[in-house]
Automatic annotation (TrEMBL):
It comes from Adlercreutzia rubneri. GO terms for cellular component: cytosol. One of its GO terms (molecular function) is 1,4-dihydroxy-2-naphthoyl-CoA thioesterase activity. Residues 52-115 form the Thioesterase domain. This is Hotdog fold thioesterase. Belongs to the thioesterase PaaI family.
Amino acid sequence: MTGTNLAGAALEVAQKRETQGLNHTLGVHFTKVEPGLVEAEMPITPALLQPFGFLHGGATIALLESVASAGGELACDLETEQPFGVEVTIRHKKSGREGDVARGVAKLAERKPSSKAGYKLYWDVAAYDGDGDVISDGVIVVKVVPKDYLAQKLAERGQA
């Protein structure tokens, strides 16, 4: 979290995501977390390259899903709602190279009611290289579901 100017809920979201799991493994560092906009950086290290020496597309997708998921978390009430990533549509345009830093950006484009419960958040996402060129872009959908609806569904399945 060195050099981050985040506070409050934004800082909590970033700290939780940077210190554990895949984000920690990939070295993802959140630089901006605010309602409707999340940005993070990921160093391109040898561990993130595919066999031909370019940034692995899966690592780029993980960065983009991380910024959209953080945005979904910040957009909902975690006491009563649970966010889930439900759809990823990404186009790869260029690859990053070792030693560079990929920057992932998620901007909230739309919020729509879900057909069954809750709502969906549509995030326009893009990953950029150090020159500002787009590496990958697309849309990630985060569904936000009421926790009481989830509990009801688990009870119906005998899993409560």
